[in-house]
Design brief:
two-stranded antiparallel sheet, mainly alpha
Length: 526
Amino acid sequence: MISMGSDNVGERTFRRLVVIATVAWAAIMIAWLLITPAFRAPDEHVHFNSVIRLEHGGGWPVPGDAKVGPGVVTAMSEAGLSYKLPRSETHWGNPPVYLHVQTPPETHSTIDSDNALPGPDATVADQMSQHPPLFYAIQATAARIAGMPGETWSTQLFFARLLDVLMMLPLPWLLASTVRLLVPSPGVAGATAFFPLALPQVPHIAASVSNDNLANLLAAIAAWLAVRLYVRGGGWRSALVLGLAMGLAALTKGTTLVLLPVVVFALYAAPGVVGRTHRIYRLAAGLGVSFVTGGFWWLVNIVRYGDLQPDGYKLIAGLSPDPGRTPLTFFSHAAHAVSESFVGRFSYLELTFSGGRAIYVVGAIILASVAAIWVARGRRVLALTLIAAPVLTIAFMFKSSYPWYIDYGLLPGLQGRYLFVCLVPLAALVAITWDTLVRVRWLWITIPVLVVGAGLTAAAGLRVALRGFYQGRDERFLDVVVDRAAMWVPGGHAAVISAFVLIALALAATCYAAWHVRSRRVCLAE
């Protein structure tokens, strides 16, 4: 008998793994926060600008009308945003390497009421008003309470990033708690908490200023509540809380709408209410709260603009057609683009973590997710509903990008990070397959290997980023990275050394989790 100990031992194992995973997750996120140069994350400068605009009473312009304020424009210049990274894999023209135009943090300008809002002559577009304003309102309110207006832009950016890190801190617990509802093994459920460490793109985004982070948090909460409602049952209060979570997610970003099938299924099919009529009432109540809380935003868009999400850029017409591409080449290029930016493609997709190998990682997750439908036993319909969220996300991305590729050879909107709202469904599906197909005696091996592997992958992602951000192609890593990074990040050498310490802490935490599982012979399967 491999399983030893009581159910209480198994629950202690589960809780300990979740705590260790949360410590490692926090360490990796803060390391990313410290070492990532200003605005070197997807659209961070315009996310930050929208926070600044609300912070100074600039309102929420209609999509396509928002512009970047002069204070943020100056910050972009001081951050060298128009210059390329030392190891950039993409080149728009041939600008100099941004390290050569360094502006020390102590000389950074301030952003206050005099330069926060754009004037009539502003030209840099801020497309973020195509999204709902919840994330930006939370950030702006927190910044005002903390007295950020009038501080240097780098101080304000650091504060905004830190708030995003706090938003994403509960992710390991949400992942593990959802899986705990679906699989009997507390070891497998606890190990699921390490899942985001194995995808370096997740902490990279989590440590930047982005509405993705609040969207990912609220989507994870909604998915957890939906699974909990379906498994344990619940009445009106559970339905209303789930509806509130889904509504707030919808008021953050449109990518969260893919979770509606999961929410609808849980509201209708969960036990706790007798009779079809009462189930319909519960469904209507939950969806009604969702609509009033955030769903109304998307109906207003359709009524006002004729589109679910209008274009925040108001793209300039006149692109020259470039025909000759086929659907087959589109799907090939699109699959690689989504896979790489899901696993790890940093900054403005300039630094690839695993290159073409990312598609194998994504392929394994897809295979495990599909396999869960067959091995889920009495919960096959739930597995089908969970897989609907990532399938819908990919379908929407491909549908919007396909005509641009066929007509112009472009691939807009293919961002693997859009799938992060599906982290809970994906983790649950993978865990169902893992727990069902892997025999109990092999859990002693697979759990430590996967946990340590996740920690090593997280550290490797940070190393790729450090090299890409700060190391020239003819330079040695240890010779230049610490001193080079210290010239750019607030906090200097102390911040950079702290980042290395945090990476070591995360690795130590994952090794301790593996040792705990192996040495204590705790109950991994009930």
